[in-house]
């Protein structure tokens, strides 16, 4: 079952189809972990108890790697979500406490310890302690000679039920787990018996768990936030001699997927080249240059096509890990569409850095990697859209006079903030402060929000550059920039700023 098949069916139908299979266990365990996670995300975890109860420990660990870690901002390291883990415990217990206990006993021990230690303190039986957590929840239990004290309410009943079952059916695992959690908990208790929140060794074990997760994800093709941020930053500032050079993080990524490092960009066979097929579009706009090139390579060179698709997958992972969009992280679909758009723009702009104006040959992508193509498009978007918009806006705001003193002060503050962020190379970090422009002209403000972004967008149906007048209403339907005509439209749009904001 593919991800597209999941999207095309109703959640209840998907679950029923798996559970009604001749061998439901085999049907579930044959799912790739990413497909299983998409199924859970589509149908809702609470409705998937029977499915996750049939999953293998290996499947669950990979699903947990994706589902239990959160980062609100792109480029920041993911953090473990203990409340989400509590919900997983409740779902597993609903499917059967024995099943839940068995699943925990089969998972990575450090992971289980780190996750459970975020939910409970484990002390000796009869220990008398007090403190914020005890006073707030007032919940504890004695299991197997240990006093278990709740650190949070989420999943408490499910967790204690699992611990009781572990003591009964998995005694060795239970004792090892409790001893480990006991050692972690003692660092929270001072001699006077008061429980405090301190930086404990549990932070180290969580760091180890995060490292193991990162290693597993790298093996599966994910990119770390630090690598993604470094790649995107280097791609914004391309000199003539750096266009075809891969960033060191890219070289490392592909080196781990091949027997030897490449002598030049490209040269890797992907495990499953299915992320971008010929004819796919970003939104409703055909990506003419990219589609034509990929179709030709697909028809004439399967090995080269597989390499290009793997590169597209890598770039999509980079955007998800390291690029913000609308002050949040890109979704997988948005990242795929954005990568295709940027690569299409890179192909259209290739002659600019290659000092050649004739059309690219049909077989161009048979020998040229898409990472370099993306970097060209990314530098164009940064320099000619995001940065150019921010600079133009500073000049316009600096000359703008408003009768309202409070609004005038906000305009001055925005101009100063934009200057600082332009100097830092991060104009998009000022976009949340553009609200004052909505007072002056709401449609213009809406368009500027899309342009002053790390991954800019323009309104759909913008027309020809010569007809580029500012929108008369807020543009809710936008698209990623994929063509030079859109870049030209941005340039024309910026010419209208003084009259629109002054009006």
Instruction: Tell me, rounded to a whole number, the average pLDDT.
Output: 82
What is the C-alpha radius of gyration, as a whole number of Å?
27 Å
Bin the helical content.
Answer: 55-70%
Overall body shape: globular
Total number of strands: 13
Biggest β-sheet strands, sense, barrel: 3 strands, antiparallel
- Poorly predicted tracts of residues: 4-8, 259-284, 464-468
Count of all domains: 3
Question: Biggest sheet, strands in spatial order?
Answer: 3-6-5
Number of helices: 25
Structure class: mainly alpha
Ends distance? 56 Å
Tell me the strand percentage band.
Answer: 5-15%
Write the layout of secondary structure elements.
Blueprint: H1 3-8, H2 11-19, H3 24-29, H4 33-43, H5 49-54, H6 57-67, E1 69-70, E2 79-80, H7 82-95, H8 97-106, H9 109-117, E3 120-124, E4 130-131, H10 132-137, E5 140-143, E6 146-150, H11 156-169, H12 171-186, E7 194-195, H13 202-219, H14 225-236, H15 248-255, E8 281-282, E9 285-286, H16 288-300, H17 302-322, E10 324-325, E11 328-329, H18 332-354, H19 364-367, H20 370-398, H21 405-424, H22 435-440, H23 442-451, E12 457-459, E13 478-480, H24 484-495, H25 497-502
Parallel strand pairs: 4-7
Antiparallel strand pairs: 1-2, 3-6, 5-6, 8-9, 10-11, 12-13
Helix pairs in contact: 4-6, 7-8, 7-11, 8-11, 9-12, 9-13, 11-12, 14-17, 16-17, 16-18, 17-18, 18-20, 20-21, 20-24
